[in-house]
Amino acid sequence: MYLDGERWRGAASLGYGPDGRRIRKKLSGATKAEVLRKLRDLRSELIAGMPVPDDRQTVAAFLDRWLMASRPGQVSEKTLDSYADTVGLHVRPSLGRQVLRKLTVSDVDQLLAWKRNAGYRANTVRIIRAVLWRALRQAEREGLVSRNAAALSAAPRVRSDEGRALSVDQARALLEQVQGTRDEPLLTVVLAFGLRRGEALGLHWSALDWESATLRVTHAVKRVRDRTETSKLRTRLVIGELKTARSRRTLFLTPELVDLLRRHRARLAEERIAIGPAWREHDLIFPSALGTPLDPDNVSHWFSRICRRAGLGHGHLHELRHSGASLMLAESTDLYVSRRYSDTPASPSQKDVYGHLVEGQKRAAAARMSQALHTPNGSRNGSQSPPAPGADAG
Fold first, then answer.
1. pTM
2. Parallel, antiparallel or unpaired: strands 214-217 and 219-225
3. Among residues 285, 241, 233, 231, which one has the least CA distance to residue 262?
4. How far is 14 from 382, CA to CA, in rounded Å?
């Protein structure tokens, strides 16, 4: 240890590296006592099994390594793209030059506060914190930081946005715009079950059981970045399995929906014959004119045009997620049944009260939804619609 001008400097030997060269860590401070303290802290960290502190590794450098090495294979491509966007747009510009091991809770709090004051939505701020928390959790496991600054930061309060829900009359007005066209089955299924757009576009014929009138939701169509070196495209469409067990579920179809899908399949068979070798078979129930997956963004634009033609103004396809439960409630369906039928999340207390939904209840809910959408005033030719197979008699 020695005095160099106005600063004290010291060094510690940390053994030898893989190349056989001695590893030395240099430290400095305003006083001799400060340097001695740093040497003691360094020794304690090494005894505890932590790696040699790197005062040069920045937050940006670590996040780049985390995205490249840690995430692929652990999360879906779509999620990885979301992580990369959040890091590139929000974290790196603000915290990227900060030394990783010196990142503080105050640094993270200031970032989140700046985003809120800049007008970003609370959910966007929540995502920024969540991505940084996941990355720093890996840094904590590797011993690069002593604590997760994002985990200790103040979590933003996110208010649920219920969004617009369609009435029964509005839903019928939408269906009138596509009646008898190739688009009718897609809109009907999405509206009836409140599916996400990617889930609807990922439905497969092989997951449809005609005899039991059930349809399994197992896949989704997503647009992800194209990471292949030979491709000239920035993004590509993929058909991937749904991530969670809750997302993978069974839809119970009414006779009207079964008949609609049979006619839709016959139409697709005619299209496939007419197109010939240009057809690309993916077993999709709702493919493009060439058999390939439909682009989710294009489907959103298509839905918006239908809303305007129906006099409903600009509409978002995600609104149909809310409409499924609302239409069920309009038909006096049990609250828990309506939530599970359309896959709208229910609270744990509601699950405890209502318990598991049996098949008969789901089929009865599907029958009431079909009646609401397709039968004016709840009847056809003056008579009630027949119950769906398996529906409860009571």
1. 0.59
2. unpaired
3. 285
4. 89
